[in-house]
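Reopening this one. Same input as before:
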Amino acid sequence: MRGIVNQTTAALMVATVLAFGAKAQVPADLTVIDYTPGLSLKLPTHIAFGPGGQEIISDHTNSRIVYRTSPSGAWQVSPLSVNKPHSVVYSSADELYYANDTDNHRMIAFSDLSSATIDAQTSNIAGVGLSRPHDNVFDPATNWHYAINPNSGHVFRFSGIGENESALNLSSDLGGYARSLTFTDGRLFAIGSAAGRVVEITDWDTQQTEVYQSFGPAANGSSGSWASTGLVINDVDYYDGYWYATSYFPSSDTNKFIRFESFDNFEDGTWEDVSGLVPTGLVPYYLTIEGDSMFVAAFNHNNLGNGDAIFKITSVPEPGSLVLLGLGGLLLARRRRE
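Same output, byte for byte:
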């Protein structure tokens, strides 16, 4: 049960502070670094991770996929022919990479980042034509792939290109333009970007959903600002005890990156503005959780290529945890000496 200060009052308090432009800082429990210094990117949308430490970036406006074979390796450009790709995911089930080749209106599958060979491709899933497909995610527990059509509101499920395909039309739930999907802890979410909504698909076969509507203005656009449109969500993901959400605010930093503990907080506006995690003027886009870190692709909408990068965000252990780690090290050293 919540305290005597109700949800609406708390939300209005937060909104009032934000309206006067309180500057968002990097939270004390997080560190952030530019993960791609020296790499020339132009509207990067996503970083994915493959076998053996591979790192794969969808470099949208440069119409290319950039990769390296390990975190210490040199970045290379894949010879694959793509047109403004948005996302890549690796499938451990068939050992193929799946990419949304967005402006070619297709999905492709391939086995080798260093080759131009495409193993399979499709321009429709379950009889529905792909129209600038954006995001795709993979569930390693069930081997299901999921993808999304941003304008039609279709979410697709399949086990491989042309295999076991089905589609849900979630346009009414999503409320307009929908950029992304999130799969975390066995739960699938579709992101209603324009309406500021997160839609959880609770049962695919019976088409059951739960809709979470964000607090604030709702002007329904593919981009905007907190004051004029409310959240215009790019992506949502869960990391180290918090949900994080990014928004498409080209010229405004307030609430472009937020975190909250539950979807109740998302709906009543009692979230924390963590927009300081990315530089002023950059739009944070897709989120990726890998290992003990969260990665965010970010770009300068008003001057593409100026500061565009992948940022790595990592939790800082609490002081008590550091003390315990230190004691553990001392005990280990003592045992070794003995």
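So the earlier flakiness isn't reproducible anymore. For the record, Residues 1-22, 329-338 have pLDDT under 50 and may be disordered.
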